[in-house]
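Quick one: Methyltransferase type 11 domain-containing protein from Glycine soja, structure tokens please.
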Amino acid sequence: MRWRAEKEMMKRSGKHEAEGGEDILIDRFLKRLSFVAIAVASLTLLFLLLRTPDTCVPHHAPRKPHLRFPKSTCDFSSTRPHVPAEKRALRIQSTRLWTAKVLSFSLLFRDHLLPLLLSAASSNNYNHSRVLCVSAGAGHEVAALRRLGIDDVTGVEILESPPLVRRADPHNLPFFDGAFDLAFTARFDEALFPARFAAEMERVVRPGGACFLLVAESGEDEVRQVVELFRNSRLVGSSNVSLTGMRMTSVILRTRENSS
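--- reply ---
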């Protein structure tokens, strides 16, 4: 019985050794296969880099320098024709979308902003009023105000859009205190720091001037929260309006005469 048990143990030991040897062979094969795959991929990538064509156009085609295949983003930008900002602006302003937006602003200003300027003007003429459009985007509101006959209109935005909009930070306006009769913005909802935004609008408006805001359609509680940010102004009124097909709420404030 003893020799049978020893024989059985020897068989099991040999079986485990055989299985261990197979695992080692499989592991070696997989490592070699991985090495070959990496080598093939590296050679293929190197071949593609060395054989990158200078142009996407067949050799027999007429020579057109503007169709050269750029090897990098720097190469691409250096071959692009330079278009002046004023020319790009004229292209935008010639579109139907631009005309529709300017018309929408014009109707809004005719009904809400012009009466406000007229009541604040020392005479019956608002044409010489000084108006600041904060976060003016591409300048639709600036164009609308000038179309209505207001000559002194300044538009500012983080990114300039000449000739209507100049570059300036709405949270740090580069103007003297009380430099304008009215400040307008249609993007107060997008302000990163609403309190700072509101303080700068108030600062550049003269005592007795006005701040005119457009915000997303709001109820009384939301309007009250907006008004609280303007610490040196009082609410004149708010109403729901439509601008380029969007329902919004206009908020009109008058800066206090004794503001500091």
